[in-house]
Design brief:
Elements: E1 4-5, E2 19-22, E3 28-30, H1 31-34, E4 39-44, H2 50-67, E5 71-77, H3 89-98, E6 105-107, H4 112-116, E7 121-122, E8 124-129, E9 134-138, H5 154-164, E10 177-180
Parallel strand pairs: 4-5, 5-6
Antiparallel strand pairs: 1-10, 2-3, 2-6, 4-8, 7-10, 8-9
């Protein structure tokens, strides 16, 4: 497994606008339609990455819990589907249903959105506050496939709790580690 770290977009960055097709509903969604009252989590994921497979259940649990608290969630896949057909929109729809994703799973065909967010790996997490300014970017927690560390979601949960409670997040923000985004050649 390749281990690619996040690029760590500067805190305070305004959420780059996107308008992409949700592979489950077939609807065109933008950042405004997925944002939450208190904040928004934008996740870059894909179907086949072992790092994403490792955390799928945890991100579903977190999204279910925190969407009740005013946090919006959206997942985006930007992988090149010519060379990685397992990440095609048709398979994304199946994957989202099989994993009970409670959030839209958008397809970034041109890869422009991944570039706008400076996304590097899957999974890559971005948390924006109610004003759509970046408040957190980095890892879900320190668990990785085969490292034996329990999967808790503590880093993302802490960032979300800080947003909800209007507290500054002073905890060190560590890059996510995962498979590199499969860029088109």
């Amino acid at each position: 497994m390749a281990r690619t770290p996040s690029n760590m977009l500067p805190l305070g960055t305004k959420a780059p606008y996107f308008e992409l097709i949700d592979t489950v509903s077939g609807k065109l969604l933008d950042i405004e339609s997925v944002k939450g009252k208190k904040g928004t989590v934008v996740m870059f994921i894909c179907n086949h990455c072992p790092f994403v497979i490792h955390i799928n259940e945890k991100i579903v649990n977190i999204a279910n819990a925190y969407s009740q608290k005013g946090i919006g969630f959206v997942a985006i896949s930007s992988n090149d589907v010519v060379n990685y057909p397992q990440d095609s929109p048709e398979k994304m729809k199946i994957h989202a249903k099989e994993n009970n994703y409670p959030f839209p799973y958008l397809y970034d065909e041109t890869q422009e959105i991944a570039k706008a967010y400076d996304a590097a790996c899957t999974p890559d997490f971005y948390v924006f506050n109610e004003d759509q300014q970046l408040a957190y970017r980095g890892q879900l927690d320190s668990s990785r496939p085969e490292n034996g560390i329990p999967l808790t979601g503590e880093d993302l949960r802490h960032a979300l709790d800080c947003l909800i409670e209007n507290k500054e997040n002073t905890k060190l923000q560590k890059p996510s580690i995962g498979c590199n985004i499969k860029w088109k050649s």
